[in-house]
Each structure stands twice: as structure tokens, then as C-alpha cells.
Amino acid sequence: MKEILCNSAYFGVTVSLIGYGAGIMLKKKFKYAFLNPLLISIIFVIGVVMLCGVDYESYENSAQYLSYLLTPATVCLAVPLYQQMTLLKKNLAAVACGILAGVLASLGSVLLLAFLFGLEHDVYVTLLPKSITTAIGMGVSEELGGLVTITVAVIIVTGVIGNVIGEAVCKLFRIYEPIAKGLALGTSSHAIGTAKALEMGEVEGAMSSLAIAVAGLLTVIGASVFAGFY
């Protein structure tokens, strides 16, 4: 059985889709924020892979087809942004300042924690791109000499946490402005946070989509600068 699964071209895709589908069903039924479909699918896939004794390379090879959908899915995020273009132009200065503040807060928090916990430099630069999309974050981490595999894991965890607690944090700090909520989610938790922003509303989703791209570009520049601070 193990050999069959390892050699299967669609084992990874099938397990991933089943896990995500189960996560969606649980989220719809129980309405709890921590029942995030992506988080559920990650736990499900890890459990199945370990139970079946399938190595990671075999799973990755059979799940790579899902990665092909990442680019068109990201491009589709431009649609809600285009629909809110008038609102964006009207609040351009506030939007720019909000994204810049979010990027600086992300990089600054990693720098502070590195000092507090005495992290090695390679671990420090590994964490710097934690809040940007995986495609950009991997390149930043590799360029700075970080551990790319850990960077990917950290980016996913950051996104899931943002998706789970993002709305609650906005309510806690009484942030009701749709533009502010969208920018916060997109800047701090990239595409996974944007999925939550789209659930919250069209404006939130559009602003979050914009934040992903702009925050990614700013982090590429900012991470190079912050890497020299520690």
C-alpha cells in the first residue's frame, strides 16, 4: 500500500482536497474561527502522510499540481481591487501610510524578538519575510541566507493565525473602517488573511489584495535593510 501511494501521481492532490473540503464543512457547521479550512487541511494531510508512512518528497511530487493554481488565483485578487479603484484613489495617502506602517511593524517585531531571544542571524533573516506571500518570501529568505523551508512554514503559520484572529483583533481594538481592516489583514497575513478579508466584505478584500503586492515589494527592500541591524 505504501509503495502504491508513494508512486501515485494524484495522492497528494486527493488528500489535500479532502482535507480542505473537510475543513470547509466544519467551518460552516460550527462557525468557530479556529476551524480554519487551511489549518484543518494541514493537520489532516500531516496525519494521513504519517499514518500511511509516505515520505514528504512523494507527497510533494503528487501535490505539485495544486501549486499551478497559485498564480492565477493571486492574479484574480486584482478584480475586487479594480472594482474599488475610485475608493482607493480617494484614500491613497492613508492606504500608503497604513501599508508602510504594517511592514515596519512586522520587520521591527522580528528584530526586537531576535534581540530578546538571542536568535542566530540565519534564523533572524529567516523570519523577516513572515508576513508576505510565499513566492516572494522564499526569494527574500534565500537571498539573505535564511532557511527557506522554515520561512515557508512561518509564512503559512502567520497567515493562518491572521485568518483566525484577524476579525477578533479588529473588534477588540474597535477598528470598524473597512479599508483599515483590509489593509491590516493583507499586510500582516498575506493571501490567507485576504481570504478572510473577502469574507468580511468587498472593500476589505480589495484593500487586502492591494496590501499583499505593495507589502511584498516594501518587505523586499526593508528586509535587506533590517538584515544589517542584527
Low-confidence sequence ranges? none
Number of domains: 2
The portion of residues assigned to helices is over 70%
Give the SSE order as H and E letters. HHHHHHHHHHHHH
Cα-to-Cα separation, first versus last residue = 49 Å
Strand content range: under 5%
Radius of gyration: 18 Å
Subunit arrangement of the protein: single chain
What characteristic shape results from the CA principal axes?
A: globular
Write down how many β-strands occur, each being a DSSP E stretch of 2 or more residues: 0
The helix tally amounts to 13
Largest beta-sheet characterization: none
Summing up helix and strand content along with how strands pair, one would put the structural category as mainly alpha
Task: Give the rounded overall mean pLDDT.
Answer: 89
Subcellular location: Membrane
Keywords: Membrane, Transmembrane, Transmembrane helix
Protein name: LrgB family protein
Transmembrane segments: 7-26, 38-56, 62-82, 94-119, 144-165, 210-229
